Amino acid sequence: MSTQSVHVEREPLVRMVKRDGISNQKAWLIRGISLGSALVVCALLIFMLTKLNPLKVYSSMFEGALGTPRRTWVTLRDTMMLLCISIGLAPAFKMRFWNIGAEGQVLIGGVATAACMIYLGGKVPTPVLFLVMVLASTLSGAVWGLVPAIFKAKWNTNETLFTLMMNYVAIQITSYCVALWENPFGSNSVGIIHPNTEWGWFPKIFGQQYLLNVIIVMGLTVAMYVYLKYTKHGYEISVVGESENTARYAGISVRKVILRTMAISSGICGLAGFIAVSGASHTISVNTADGRGFTAIIVAWLSKFNAVVMVLFSFLLVFLDKGAVEIASKYGLNEYASEIIEGIILFFILGSEFFINYRLIFRHAGKKDKKEVA
Amino acid sequence: MKKVLSLILAVTMLIGCCAMLAGCGNSGDDGFKIGVILIGDENEGYTYSHIKGIREAAESLGVKDEQIIWKYTVGEDEKCYDAAVDLVESGCTVIFSNSYGHQSHMQKAASEYPEIQFVACTGDTAAISGLDNFSNAFTFVYESRFVSGVVAGMKIKELVEAGKLTDANYDANGNVKMGYVGAYPYAEVVSGYTAFFLGAKSVYDKISMEVQYTNSWFDITAEATAAEALAARGAVVICQHADSTGAPSAVQALHKNGQVVYSVGYNVDMLSVAPDVALTSATNNWGVYYTYAIKAAMNGEKIATNWAEGYKTGAVCITALGSACAAGTAEKVAEVEAALKAGTLHVFDTSKFTVEGKQVTSCIVDLDGNFANTDPADKEAVWDGYFHESELRSAPSFSLIIDGITPLN
Fold this sequence. Notes:
The complex is a heterodimer of chains A (374) and B (409).
Chain A lengths: L1 H6 L6 E5 L5 H27 L3 H13 L2 H26 L7 H19 L5 H30 L3 H23 L29 H20 L1 H11 L1 H6 L4 H28 L10 H11 L4 H25 L3 H23 E5 H11 L1
Antiparallel strand pairs in A: 1-2
Helix pairs in contact in A: 2-14, 3-13, 4-8, 4-9, 4-11, 4-12, 4-13, 5-6, 5-7, 5-11, 5-12, 6-7, 6-11, 8-9, 9-11, 12-13, 13-14
Chain B lengths: L1 H24 L8 E4 L7 H17 L6 E4 L6 H12 L4 E4 L5 H10 L4 E5 L4 H4 L4 E6 L1 H21 L14 E7 L4 H17 L3 E7 L6 H13 L4 E5 L4 H11 L5 E5 L11 E7 L1 H13 L7 E4 L6 E3 L10 H14 L21 E2 L13 E2 L1 E2 L2 E2 L17 E3 L2
Parallel strand pairs in B: 1-2, 1-3, 3-4, 4-5, 5-11, 6-7, 6-8, 7-17, 8-9, 9-10
Antiparallel strand pairs in B: 10-12, 13-14, 15-16
Helix pairs in contact in B: 2-10, 3-4, 6-7, 6-11, 8-9
């Protein structure tokens, strides 16, 4: 580096240098600082635009997400939903397979679940019904992901476009089913399925309606963490992701890994559809996935496919969303105002990754560095 | 790394637990509180008319701002149930929702909190739900649709007499063509456009109408495209049952290019987006209902299971007449409104329309939503020579396609 600077007459004011490594403590410090600055910037913005006390606004956001036991459970339920999809996306993304089709995989899993609830509810014993729902949703999700995966593995088609297109197919199938199952007639909505008998609904555990959602998704999270980090399959996924040629050289069947991983990835997304229908909404509509298939991509990337870190980011996003709803309700702020806050916070978090990977050397400090080197 | 992670996780959970414990303490407030669940916010015409109605009611009843808890842009899924239960926990004793799709989630909440009154506006299952604390409300919006049809009929009559129409504006039978942008092919929409059509026909008899559905309640582009398609087929007046300003804006643009075409809107005054072509809009005055319902709830009385009222109590009206309206429209409107108020004029008078060439003498309404109208619960809606819309239940139920109206899709 010092040989280079000899030829340059004037050094640039700031140089970006890729860090060789950074201690975890320092990395989390940078993340903390950026979150803090994001909050300060938002506070200034809130005050400038609305003249409200930003601290009050923040505390109502907190109130909205965790203010009562019920709100906390709803926040938890939605966190689990987002987390489940992110968990599903993680292995595909780690393999550098751009699965943009989670939205459709969730929907189709939800449609399969709703079909089981409607046609089998009350006709088969509850454990059988749940088994069928789990299998149907996972399989239909897996099929939705396997179709693009097969094309990718065999003919190397573009999986980004293919999975994206599959979303629209799923949305159309969902609208067809909604029209088929609408109740009451002419309403264009399925309404709550079995509102009185609660056939096919997640049972309450310890009196908590959404505890089963938490148990299933936390179980999946741990399993995915172990799968990616400590198993042969997980290793194969990262090798294929780094370089297909290396994988082939090492004797890994790339085709097999792509198919297997996508089946797992989209199967979990299908299962997320099961949790959404059977464990939360008890109905099906084109909004069942509610854009979470795309939000989960952000979660998966921000957490660098680390299943445990995904818990944090899913919680953060859902927390911001619930907080947004509350401040809209309390201060009559349009929801766009809170989306601005969400945007600023995400921007700063993404920005912090830059400072974790690079360090800035200022001209003055740089010269001092050189002297020290010399 | 792991240490920091686990620390953060622990702190998060701790905060969560604290919140759970703290939450138990501060629930419950003795004051009267109203909860409102809305599909949109004040930027959307349909929801705005509800917000306006509630504000009017609150003002006349002396309910303070902080006694109303608003939940904006609540989807028609578990978010509605979440919002309803959250409002119960915040101390609301009466909770309103304004969109049809909220209904089953409101009903679920109502079955769990029998001491709280739940109202699903525009819904239709309250009577068959068997719940005392669950009700529906709608207005006789078909009356204001009829009046807006009268305004359209006056305009058509003027255009015909002035010789402004071309051959393209007439159908094969010599009827002047109108167009209608409908959301969905449901009773609510069918009832609305039939009333509009009959209103126009009451002024100028030789009229036909084509209906284009958009399959969405709010889709600016689809509504504009539908309006353009109808205008291209020769429609002189285009009315709508969809919530955006897409159709009037499109009509305004066509008018600027020299086409003879006018617009009748819904819910909100369209003069701001279509100053040269907007004749009027049929609308509801929800303040009448909310004043009634909130007053009943304040006094601890039960809100009527099926509420529906019209011109008689001022629950429906049309917006200000545009400058494009024909001369004498205001007088004619006043005359028709007076007849509706007095009960001497019935919108669905069976002597005024035919279905497949025959007069309608019987029409059973499906009241239990089971796809058939043959159960004992279903009732005859035609007596005394007219179809009794919104009287057996508040939501519209007229779904006959009468002669002269042609759905295109």
